[in-house]
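ok so for the tutorial part 2 we go from a plain amino acid sequence to predicted structure tokens. step 1 is just haveing the sequence, like this:
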Amino acid sequence: MDILNYLKEHENKDMLRFLTCGSVDDGKSTLIGRMLYDSKMIFDDQLSAAESESKKYGTTGEKIDMALLVDGLQSEREQGITIDVAYRFFATDNRKFIIADTPGHEQYTRNMVTGASTADVAIILIDARKGILTQTRRHSFIVSLLGIEHVIVAINKMDLVDFCEDTYTEISKAYGALADELGIKNTYYIPLSALDGDNVVMVSKHTPWYDGETLLSLLDTMDISKEQKSESFRFPVQYVNRPNLDFRGFCGTIAAGSVKVGDEIMVLPSGKTTKVKSIINAGDITEADRGVTTEEAYAQMAITIITEDEVDISRGDMIVHTHSLPSVSNNLNVMLVWMDEKLMILGRTYDIKCATSMISGSFEKINYKVDVNSFERTQVEVLALNDIASCRMILTRPMASDTYTVNRLTGSFIVVDRMTNNTVGAGMIMGSSQSNQGALAKKYTKAEMELNVYIRNNFPEWGCIKIDTI
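step 2 — the prediction. this is what the tokens look like for a chain of 470 residues:
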């Protein structure tokens, strides 16, 4: 098959992102390696390298150590653990997949949060010999916190308990109670052996009492369409395109919903309204025809919107329908995951990046810190690496956003250290309070505001922000 036919075959398949999580030695990397191996998605050179490495480390006897197909870092292979998030791609006849293999150690909680932030489905591995452990509760809490609605409980190493049905039933019931406690909506249970491939890609002959699907079959047919669609149109402006004086378009990727030519739209946070004059569909543009337009565009499409009026719009603004507005505030209640060795200090100024906007802000109060192992809440004054806490975040100007449960893209943010430019935290917006912009706003003269408008209208490539909303 040539490359064009291959791309044509895959372009219309939907994408499912999932992560694996579980305790150390529960077999996360082995499961992914087995899935890739049994679905024949391993290249010959990768297989040869895994065979050679398996003999070197000797962790699985004469068998190929499937974990070596995923664990790429030298320190991971030496220690037999996963340290950093590893992503793998594969496809079936029905669907494309991106797998995030995340670490099990508590010290790598931030890595797991990173992998889970874009996942549609979580596979939580449980060692059939050990049942639900503290790490199982921690990973399940993070999965529920990040809004992953589908959880597959892979009860692994069933070969070491003689494929006992009672063990499977007991663990399933125990996890069901935990899922209810955390509010996880959809759970699926599969008894398997990642080492030998039972119920991973092929049905196991050792579990005649199990009449459910194999893991790959379940992933291949699972319906996640409800998570990918949203009724509310959200278009974070990424770039203002003005190649000449006769054209000004607003570029970006639709985060949710759809938009049509003629729709009434509002620009946030300014609140100015206009209508959509035309939509340039970037997906249709070729070198021969750069002016292709479309009447309607949907979520995940990269487009350029041209408005009927000369409305002031800049990078970081959000375009929405006038009948479905998000919150606009600089006073937000958030769940924050701290990801830096340096402590999070209350009152210190950080850069907050949400969608395409970058705004300065600080954390005014830590409402409580959550013990991810016991779910207990404690009062603290600072946050350390891997801490998860409910905080109140104050921005220097209002920002349009949704709650994380409504929209994962416009309801999440990262925290950037202004000195090092490192990402030091990630968070989810849980709600907002009335803006206290007035207490923070700076007074500008009329001349300064007119100059600001002139620069933004004529030199959008400078990225000048609107001072009337600071």
